Amino acid sequence: MESVSVIVTGRVQGVGYRWFVHDLASSRDVSGWVRNRRDGAVEAELHGDRAQIDGILRAMRTGPPHAHVDGLEVREIPAGTTDGFEIRPAR
Predict the structure, then answer these.
(1) Which H or E run includes 27?
(2) Using DSSP, how many helices (H) and how many strands (E) does the chain show?
(3) Which candidate in 36, 38, 75, 91 is catalytic?
(4) Second label for 52, Cα 20 to 30 Å away, from 1, 27, 29, 40?
(5) Spatial contact of 68 and 11, defined as CB atoms under 8 Å apart
(6) Which member of 11, 18, 58, 91 is catalytic?
(7) Which of 7, 22, 19 lies closest to 84, judged by CA?
(8) How does strand 31-36 pair with strand 85-87?
């Protein structure tokens, strides 16, 4: 089990980015959460198989239609688990 924290910058709010990540993670049995940040970025935590997480991160670099990703900051975090994948309120 691997866990990463991700901060995505660019035009990533108001374009379905959180649902895009939610659907990717849910379809690949990766748990965690995603939320908008007040600074305009999107933040996520992903917990699961390394190969599955890497696939999600590759897709997050592009995002859904109408998104424009400027940066993806990924850092390893202590292994954690959550049940399922959720969209959390903005912070």
Answers:
(1) helix 17-27
(2) 2, 5
(3) 36
(4) 40
(5) yes
(6) 18
(7) 22
(8) parallel
Query: What's the length of the chain?
Result: 91
Q: Which class is domain 2-87?
A: alpha beta
Quote the pLDDT of residue 91: 86
Active site residue 75: no
Angle between helices 50-60 and 17-27 (to 10 degrees): 160
Going by C-alpha positions, the residue among 58, 36, 37, 33 that lies closest to residue 46 is 33
Q: Is residue 28 flagged as an active site residue?
A: no
Q: Check: CB of residue 64 under 8 Å from CB of residue 20.
A: yes
Decide: helix, strand or coil at residue 62.
coil
- Phi then psi for residue 23, to 5 deg, are -65, -40
Contact between 36 and 20 (Cβ < 8 Å) = no
Task: Check whether 56 has a pLDDT greater than 80.
Answer: yes
Report pTM.
0.94
Which amino acid type is present at position 75?
A: R
